[in-house]
């Protein structure tokens, strides 16, 4: 996304990480080892999911770790709820 932002701004156009994801129906799988506060600051919490079936060794441990982050207060409870519930439902068409 950083590379795309540079290109868009060079063209004199307005850039919005959040709008790019929304307008193109893009969902990004994150891991608890990612810098989630940084990611949330730049792209919001509407298009993040966790525990998908790609590349993660144990998706259950990721979900449990994310719940622990919620309890620790490092990531807003509303964002965790979206990542674990609302976003996957929207991604897979259950909304």
Topology (SSEs and partners):
Blueprint (H helix, E strand, L loop, with lengths): L1 H9 L6 H7 L4 E2 L6 H8 L4 E2 L9 H14 L4 H15 L4
Report the uncertain regions.
Answer: none
Question: SS-based structural class?
Answer: mainly alpha
Q: Figure out the total of helices.
A: 5
Number of self-contained structural domains: 1
Main sheet: strand order: 1-2
Estimated radius of gyration: 14 Å
Counted beta strands: 2
Mean pLDDT: 81
State the gist of this model.
With 95 residues, this protein is mainly alpha-helical. The chain has one domain (16-91). It contains five helices and two strands.
Structure notes:
The chain has 95 residues and is mostly helical. The chain has one domain. The chain contains five helices and two strands, in the order ααβαβαα. The chain has a two-stranded parallel ribbon. α3 (36-43) links the parallel β1 and β2 (48-49).
Observed structural traits:
95 residues, two-stranded parallel ribbon, single chain, 4% strand, globular
């Amino acid at each position: 996304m950083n590379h795309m932002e540079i290109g868009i701004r060079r063209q004199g156009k307005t850039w919005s990480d959040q709008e790019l994801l929304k307008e193109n129906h893009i969902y990004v799988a994150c891991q608890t080892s990612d810098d989630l506060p940084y990611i949330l600051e730049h792209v919001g919490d509407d298009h993040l999911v966790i525990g998908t079936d790609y590349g993660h060794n144990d998706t259950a441990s990721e979900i449990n770790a994310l719940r622990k982050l919620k309890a620790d207060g490092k990531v807003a409870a509303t964002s965790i709820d979206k990542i674990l519930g609302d976003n996957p439902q929207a991604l897979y068409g259950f909304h």
